[in-house]
Design a protein that fits this description.
CATH topology of the largest domain in chain A: Metallo-beta-lactamase, Chain A
Family (chains A, B): Belongs to the metallo-beta-lactamase superfamily. RNA-metabolizing metallo-beta-lactamase-like family. Bacterial RNase J subfamily.
Number of domains of chain A: 3
Radius of gyration of chain A: 29 Å
Number of helices of chain A: 15
Shape of chain A: globular
GO molecular function, one term (chains A, B): RNA binding
Largest sheet of chain A: 8 strands, mixed
CATH superfamily of the largest domain in chain A: Ribonuclease Z/Hydroxyacylglutathione hydrolase-like
Subcellular location (chains A, B): Cytoplasm
Structural class of chain A: alpha/beta
Strand order of the largest sheet of chain A: 7-6-5-3-2-1-19-20
CATH class of the largest domain in chain A: Alpha Beta
Oligomer: homodimer
Cofactor (chains A, B): Zn(2+); Ca(2+)
Main location (chains A, B): cytoplasm
């Protein structure tokens, strides 16, 4: 490859998806053209109290809005498309995706009233997309736990940048959509300047099993089950859903679909031809109780033990339409996402208590396989692409690092491997690459409608409130004499149960009174000092008595 | 109210440790004699906001305090002895334990000022303990992840009740304290009426590897490491600590011990002869930086990613004495307890970012083995004891259930297996057993010093506060005219960042004013109605605008 001499540079960076699992968003810029790959969301960490979702900070994109040529989507998972409604509100650019991906996106945009104003462009595996005057994108089909997933090859004046999207190599895919090995090899033989590749399973040795292996297990379970089969899985896993339908058909059962996102995906995927459902196969939830137990499959949400999901409600006997009965077989066809282990465990326990036979992934049952390739598949991708530069993406730092070691092991020069943080730019010019500073990047926390800033102060207060609650101390002072006219009244929430702690609160009252009286007698009457003194005295007393530190909010009024 | 237990029957129940991992406490009662096995604590669930620890509700024991003959301890882990300081405060009974167990207990009681008033009785593997007029206990040595662990055989007029404690079968134990298979077989051949056995690993097929396998891996790592070795493990795992010392010795390194509980255990175990430390092996943390990097081992706490622990501080570069340097080898010799995966993952990432080589259990590295027996060992115990009745303990419901299936598989009559909840009594009389009601049982939540009740209302408030914060609305009304004299003032904490949301709060102010004025003009002036109306109107407005539901606390004063 000949070295180009140019004053323009190629910049590659992530706004989300590196050093974390979730909110994937990657940016490729050459001269005045910016291309964005994916726009995902992330679920909040445990210290982000009250937050619903987290999306990437897109300041860099809004500040350069005239340069952004579009958002290319690799597939329809929430961590790749879930941020779109928020991003498109601030950045009206075209969105490119395959049929199923756009189908799921459109549903989302409709709910956010953004469908009309968003330009959506359908791509196929052989599409070519012009991106401004300097770049062009082509695509290649991959295997993943949702159909219609693609990798992207972005052709730039510096060379080709390949983004794998999420992938595994499934040699016996459920939908017969084979990964396009030939196209990948062709891209590789033409020369790949930089490869960005999925690091999710970089810690896992070997190969990830084929999705089809789950189908075989399901058929066996469906056939042997003497009563109803209830199966929970990720709503977006259309291949899994297809296999549930197939297993139901071959065991003479009907399927009912329960849970908002599951109903959504099934209808979109069926309508677009990604799910093949025999006539008469689907029944309404209301019909379940009228049918023989061994003729029924309940396909539902809740594989992560989410508190409001269908399976969790069934496990707690609070679902309006389906009760779990002794002898039912319940399959949880998913692995708990880190952080959800306890919720899933609780659901399993509750189902067992109801007398169900529960089959879950912890028990080596074969009812789930990952959608991400393991080490041997990551090496295969590296060897197909033979990149000059390698940027491991889509993973926590330890996974990126492991992926970097894999790249080294197949011959990538360690100096050509860049493990980046969000915002960190890899700049490539004339065939040489280096880290070149940072763009603004971070978490935007969405709570409810996202009105008003939920920043560090708000989160710190929520944390404090959640630990030991709050005491509001109300006192009215006389303007003239400075004497206490009414109060102090102490109102506690989340601190102690008042009826059991009257003595404590009485004493707290006395401490507030005497603190204020002492200050008045010394002619200290700035409110700030009064409030600080009350907070300090009361805080000290409560800590001594209880070893707790509730938030204290003094309200001092004058009449 | 507790159910009365008739005097001629044997009753067995758990006050903690079934349907959960933690706060182990089991009760065996015959006539007027009550024996308690263990008194553990549990760490709070994620919905127990602000709670420090959880202990069993011991109402049944305090109501029957004159019958309680003592607390027998199986071993020195927190989930078996951590509740003692709280229990002994309300129930002054003798405590029986092996040397190391009592050593750890004494340390605890000293801190709680209970050492003087607590009768502590040292037991050996061949001790016999009279418990009231009807029962007697003998002991048998087991293997577990702490030395001096025992199982207990309680002889009662109905027959022998065996409690295994926590156990595995380690045929090559680190301390040469072999499990006493002969004694177990002898107990079995004399006849076991009821067996209570550890279900922790009932879901795991096969055998748990020997602790010694970890030692071999550690020696190899210590020898190959070119710089310092930092190793975090459970402080109580004295075998593991011994192996760290051995590996340090054979690789020519010195060891420094960091972290309060680690320093504690090392000094107690060494003093009592459970840890053999060559002279000059231990160095002070201050000496670490003066020594050649390949001569040092740092043994520390933090294997669970606990926020304030030694390893976490090192990973964040906030430890006062030890910095992690590029090229250091860090070993996390533990599996994350469910719920801690994210914390451990974060610590690993931070260590990698500092340039350390991190070895952890997720990577199949052999640096940790469980202290609990897997399925084959559980079957071995069942076959040694050949119990008539079987009660799986020490586990979540799904583990108890799996353990029950294992018992069935080795020939225990399914009708003789009792999966119980806390408080649920298994009553045995004349050789036949049945479930016979419940005694009071539950969680006692300890927050700080445990002053005042932290019950459901307090937890519910903390949950609400943690989600969307609180708004305090202060208004002063005129006693005569009912007009607003001052306010409304709205103070928010944990809701929105005020400076960015002035418009929202201004509008909220207007809504409170107009709500109050309207009510006054209609002559509604009961405070309760005023407050409720303010709460409703403001809550509705805020939900419409933000989709959040902060707690609203109206404070209305009259002058």
């Amino acid at each position: 490859m000949s070295k180009k001499i140019s004053s323009d540079k190629l910049s590659i960076f992530a706004l989300g998806g590196v050093g974390e699992i979730g909110k994937n968003m990657y940016v490729v810029q050459y001269a005045n053209d910016i291309v964005v790959v994916d726009a995902g969301l992330k679920f909040p960490e445990e210290d982000m109290l009250g937050i619903d979702i987290v999306i990437p900070d897109i300041s860099y994109l809004t500040e350069n809005r005239d340069k952004v040529r579009g958002i290319l989507l690799t597939h329809g998972h929430e961590d790749h498309i879930g941020g779109l409604p928020y991003v498109l509100k601030h950045l009206n650019v075209p969105v490119y995706g395959t049929k199923l991906t756009l189908g799921l996106v459109e549903n989302k945009l409709r709910e956010a009233n953004l469908l009309g104003e968003t330009k959506r462009i359908l791509i196929h595996a052989d599409s070519e997309v012009e991106l401004g005057s300097t770049m062009k994108a082509t695509f290649f089909r991959t295997n993943h736990s949702i159909p219609d997933s693609v990798g992207i090859c972005i052709e730039t004046p510096e060379g080709n940048v390949v983004h794998t999207g999420d992938f595994k190599f499934d040699h016996t895919p459920v939908n017969d959509q084979y990964a396009d090995l030939q196209r990948m090899a062709e891209i590789g033989s033409k020369g790949v300047l930089a490869l960005l590749s999925d690091s999710t399973n970089a810690e896992k040795p070997g190969f990830t099993p084929s999705e089809r292996s789950v189908g075989i297990v399901l058929e066996d379970i469906f056939r042997k089950a003497e009563q109803r089969v209830v199966i929970a899985t990720f709503a977006s896993n259309v291949h899994r859903i297809q296999q549930v339908i197939n297993a139901a058909e071959s065991s003479g059962r009907k399927v009912t679909v329960i849970g908002r996102s599951m109903v959504n995906v099934v209808s979109i995927a069926a309508e677009l031809g990604y799910l093949h459902i025999p006539d008469g196969m689907l029944i309404e939830p209301e019909e379940v109780n009228k049918m023989a137990a061994d003729r029924v499959v309940v396909l539902c949400t809740g594989s992560q033990g989410e508190p409001m999901s269908a399976l969790t409600r069934m496990a707690r006997s609070t679902h309006r339409k389906v009760d779990i009965l002794p002898g039912d077989t319940v399959i949880i066809a998913a692995t708990p996402v880190p952080g959800n282990e306890k919720y899933v465990g609780r659901t399993i326990d509750e189902l067992f208590r109801l007398g169900a036979d529960v089959i879950y992934s912890g028990s080596n049952s074969g009812v789930h396989v990952s959608g991400h390739g393991s080490q041997e598949e990551l090496k295969l991708m590296l060897n197909l692409m033979k990149p000059q530069f390698f940027i491991p993406i889509h993973g926590e730092y330890r996974m990126q690092r492991r992926h970097a070691l894999l790249a080294e092991s197949v011959g990538v020069d360690p100096d050509n491997i860049f493990i980046t943080d969000i915002g960190e730019i890899v700049e490539i010019q004339n065939g040489s690459a280096r880290k070149a500073g940072k763009v603004t990047a971070g978490n935007v926390l969405i709570d409810g409608l996202g009105v008003g800033d939920v920043g560090n102060i708000v989160l710190r207060d929520r944390k404090l409130l959640s630990q030991d609650g709050i005491l509001v101390v109300v006192v009215t002072l006389s303007k003239q004499s400075g004497a206490i006219v009414s109060g102090p009244d102490i109102i506690s929430r989340g601190f102690v149960y008042v009826r059991e702690s009257e003595g404590l609160l009485d004493e707290a009252n006395r401490i507030v009174s005497s603190t204020l009286q002492k200050l008045m007698s010394e002619n200290v009457n700035e409110w700030a000092s009064l409030k600080t003194s009350v907070k300090d005295a009361l805080g000290r007393f409560l800590y001594e008595q209880t070893r707790r530190r509730p938030m204290i909010l003094p309200i001092i009024m004058e009449v």
